[in-house]
Amino acid sequence: VVNALMSEAIRASMSELGSEFADPAGTPPASAVAVFAVEYLLLGITAIWLYASIRPRFGPGPLTAAMAGFAIWLILEIHGLSLVVITGLTLRTYIASSAPYVVVQVVSAIVGASIYREDLGESRTPLTASAT
User: In Å, how far from its chain's centre is CA 118?
Assistant: First the structure.
């Protein structure tokens, strides 16, 4: 999605930085694909964990899942702003390349939440110490 929307701007920025992502075909190296796969798996797990955590307060459903997905995306993007400072990437290019991922993260969280099931049995133990 991002390559289709911002391929020229991203390639130009990556070329300035001397990145191997500056490949004219826009194909990332195999090692990067593996890292991205693991990264997005962990992000998905984190989004569903957050969904499960906020579900008691906001209720089950796609809106709560979307909030969890958006929160994960926002945290990542706030942290990602360090790329602008460290690499010299322009803020405009960074925002344009990261903005489409909000859709990816929100949709992923909604899909993950649709398969999430919570065991409401009595086997769960509370986190507070019981008085005996």
Answer: 23
Question: Are 62 and 103 contacting, i.e. CB atoms less than 8 angstroms apart?
Answer: no
Amino acid letter, 32:
A
**Two tokens, residue 80:** 């990602």
Q: CA quadruple 31, 37, 41, 42: dihedral positive or negative?
A: positive
For 7-54, write each residue's pLDDT tens digit.
566 566 666 666 655 555 656 677 878 888 898 899 999 999 999 999
SS3 per residue for 50-109: HHHHHHHHHCCCHHHHHHHHHHHHHHHHHHHHHHHHHHCCCHHHHHHHHCCHHHHHHHHH
**Stretch (H or E) spanning 124:** none
Structure tokens at 19: 């990145």
How far is Cα 93 from Cα 109, in angstroms, rounded to an integer?
25
Q: Would you tell me how many other CB atoms lie within 10 Å of the CB of residue 53?
A: 10
Residue pLDDT, tens place only, 95-123: 887 888 899 999 999 999 999 987 765 55
Cβ atoms of 100 and 1 closer than 8 Å: yes
